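seq:
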Amino acid sequence: MPKTIALIRLLAWCLLWSIGGASQALVLRDDRQVDVTINQPPQRIVSLLPSLTETVCALGQCQKLVGVDRYSNWPERIAHLPRMGGGLDPNIESVVAAKPDLVLMATSARGAARFEALGLKVLALEPNTHIDVQRVMHIVAKALAVPEAESERVWRTIDAAVNTAAQSIPAQAKGQWVYFEVGPAPHGASESSFIGETLLRLGARNILPASLGPFPKINPEFVVKAQPDLIMVGDSSFAEMGARPGWQNMRAIRSQRVCHFKAEESDVLVRAGPRMDEAARLMAQCLISKARTNP
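struct:
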């Protein structure tokens, strides 16, 4: 009899738990303006955007990742994870085979509808500004059942570090006109991009106005006419800059006021995610060093 009573109590407790769990279903609106229902915290996550991969790990949930895109390379602990294509060419079969209970991807990526048709839960998020980084971090935290206080702590740490980088810049290094190139063709970062927002917080001025959009493709002659004081550029563009008509005669290039970032540094700079503070430090170092060596 005691065993029977105990079993009844256990079954009753399980029933109450299941009812309570169902009532705790979470509905999140992603950047497609789609409502995504999370019935329970996901334990198997595939991330197809580097900034989202980094956000998951910054929130202390790296261990739940079971696959990432080919460009995700931070932190080191994800190096062993299967690579599942990129945003434009996700490997549908690999993602499905991983049996994720949540797929994180950009709104601009392909495959969301296909994943959902195959029964996978998709949360599409694409941070483009500082506010977006904060907002996306909070949404991912909610999806993963990370306490709001923790996600807020992570964000405050990042934001405070950006402020510290800004405070490190002396007056003589501020006010420089900057051209930041994010990729060949060329594409630049304007005032309305998260990179442009960081430059503004560091006291720099951007030759690309917000009206051009966050990351516009630009005519190389535009940069020549703008005559930036300083150029920031990564490996993907640096090698070809010298061959562009008129660029060798720009003041910034003649006076070697060019910060050439290595591939791993470029990754930090062009991702709107939790390493935004590190990006601010890299930009601050550039502004300071060039102001000091080339006043």
